[in-house]
């Protein structure tokens, strides 16, 4: 178990829930299956000058839990496999979600696999990062997750979207056929899909953050979902459905125009 202070430039970051202490440097935990792996990743992140204040290292599940209990960890980079077993990283992410909800976890994998991606997000991960990508990209991932965003590429989003569709259909209308979301809720939903934080949405719509939080809570209840991740996936899914519905109509219109001309 090792704790380091990275002497790199500080960066101010935003967080979607408006929690205090966001302008302070990031406290990071790195969990690999070997001490050398931890040290190499730590050194690479230090050289990238990402505004990291503390970097804590762990090689096993018990060390991860001990560090999260002792320090205010912001983001935890956790390898899929740890020293105490294969896929222990996936298991500990679920434990962190229950016992240390303020810690935002990112699963580190050697290659992207649909079943691992799905398991990671179901267990509470805020991102899945492939080791084939660069340290600079990892830095962007850490910053995004710290802000309360989800780190996933289009392939991973497709996996999550399909799982959401397969698991349970979301009701978009009530028994009278009326849309569940109000006009204002639709506006908030669109801004959430753009990746804006609650603070940014409140500023854009000239409302308070508390009001935006209330809107989101009500929308979650209406749609039968429980998290921001599910909500974003729902919005993306609706857009895909809309595009699929419009495409045949557009094709007919283009064909009609050709015939007329």
SS content category: alpha/beta
Strand % is: 5-15%
Number of helices: 10
CATH topology of the largest domain: Rossmann fold
**Rg from Cα:** 21 Å
CATH-assigned homologous superfamily of the largest domain:
Response regulator
Features:
6-stranded mixed sheet, Rossmann fold, 2 domains, alpha/beta, 10 helices, disordered C terminus, 261 residues, Arc Repressor Mutant, subunit A, 6 strands, single chain, globular
Written account of the structure:
- The chain is α/β, with parallel strands linked by helices and 261 residues long.
- It has two domains: 2-151, 3-Layer(aba) Sandwich (Rossmann fold); 168-260, Arc Repressor Mutant, subunit A (Orthogonal Bundle), CATH 1.10.10.
- The protein has helices at 35-47, 61-70, 88-99, 114-123, 135-146, 154-167, 183-193, 198-205, 209-223, 228-260, and strands spanning 2-5, 26-31, 52-58, 75-79, 104-109, 127-130.
- The chain has a six-stranded mixed beta sheet with strand order 1-3-2-4-5-6, with helices on both faces.
- Helix 1 links the parallel strand 2 (26-31) and strand 3.
- Helix 3 runs parallel beside helix 4, helix 7 crosses helix 10 and helix 8 (198-205) crosses helix 9 (209-223).
- The protein is globular.
- The model is unreliable at 1-22 and 249-261 (pLDDT under 50).
